[in-house]
């Protein structure tokens, strides 16, 4: 029997669902603790079947309709979950009366802001509608990575050198609000994550390996970290089975993620796949990262 660990708010939880499997994991976990989540599925972003949940498909810029859902469904908490690959055009923005005065700033952020700036803007607009934004980790804390090896394989001395180099690159990249991941091979940064995402970056590394532009004698690592200025309620770094497959195809020795601030999706399957592929997955703590930030 599930233990009801819901906060006593008297309201309902909404999940604004982007792409990927994470929103569905969050919805199922919310049900398991007694919540009745309402899914706001983002048009052209999520391709999942939401028929088992109360849901509605809405455009990401339709604040008027989203605010109406909050009122009619009694929403008091919101989780932002999943990838958003398409920013709304100005003509897609449908403000509420409360957000009308913010439209010029919204458009400026959409045109020139990085992903973190856009997420912070979205959080402000949601909370202006009367709901409180919470993190995925508040619903599924067991997804968070712990410090140290998560599987049967540990990084060796050379791997730790690559982790340090890639972590420094990831911190610098995050400070620019560009991405969260970097790959280092033999003490040299060979790839930085951009808007294409982690899987596409790893595919690029695999291509460089095939072309002979990266040494086949040295394996290398992927590091994924929170951006230094990141709001932890949205877009925590995450890895899953596709990340393990991408790392294997790229010839990497392993993956390092930030303990307590990164998510491991489908943990059992992900770690099992990493063990079978001979790839380490390890959580690095804040003490390791302190000097880099």
UniProtKB/TrEMBL annotation:
Domain LpxI N-terminal stretches: 12-143
Domain LpxI C-terminal: 147-281
Annotated InterPro entries: LpxI, LpxI_C, LpxI_C_sf, LpxI_N
Superkingdom in the source lineage: Bacteria
Pfam families, A to Z: LpxI_C (PF06230), LpxI_N (PF17930)
PANTHER family: BLL4848 PROTEIN, LPXI FAMILY PROTEIN
Protein name: LpxI family protein
Origin species: Rhizobium herbae
């Amino acid at each position: 029997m599930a233990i009801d660990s819901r906060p006593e708010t008297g309201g309902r939880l909404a999940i604004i669902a982007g792409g990927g499997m994470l929103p569905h994991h969050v919805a199922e976990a919310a049900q398991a603790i007694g919540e009745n989540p309402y899914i706001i599925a983002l048009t052209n972003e999520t391709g999942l079947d939401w028929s088992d949940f109360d849901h509605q498909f809405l455009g990401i810029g339709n604040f008027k309709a989203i605010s109406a859902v909050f009122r009619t469904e009694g929403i008091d908490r919101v989780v932002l979950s999943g990838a958003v690959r398409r920013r709304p055009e100005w003509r897609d923005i449908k403000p509420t009366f409360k957000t009308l005065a913010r439209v010029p700033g919204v458009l400026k952020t959409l045109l020139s802001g990085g992903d973190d700036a856009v997420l912070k803007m979205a959080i402000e607009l949601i909370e202006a509608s009367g709901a409180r934004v919470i993190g995925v980790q508040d619903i599924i804390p067991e997804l968070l990575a712990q410090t140290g090896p998560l599987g049967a394989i540990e990084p060796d001395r050379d791997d730790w050198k690559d982790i340090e180099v890639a972590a420094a690159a990831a911190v610098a990249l995050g400070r620019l609000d560009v991405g969260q991941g970097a790959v280092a091979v033999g003490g040299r940064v060979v790839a930085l994550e951009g808007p294409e995402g982690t899987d596409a970056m790893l595919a690029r590394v695999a291509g460089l390996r095939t072309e002979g532009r990266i040494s086949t004698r040295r394996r290398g690592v992927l590091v994924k970290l929170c951006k230094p200025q990141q709001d932890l309620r949205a877009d925590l770094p995450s890895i899953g089975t596709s990340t393990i497959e991408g790392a294997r195809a790229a010839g990497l020795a392993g993956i390092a993620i930030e303990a307590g601030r990164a998510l491991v999706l489908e943990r059992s399957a992900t770690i099992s796949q990493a063990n079978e592929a001979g790839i380490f997955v390890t959580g690095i703590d804040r003490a390791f990262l302190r000097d880099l930030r």
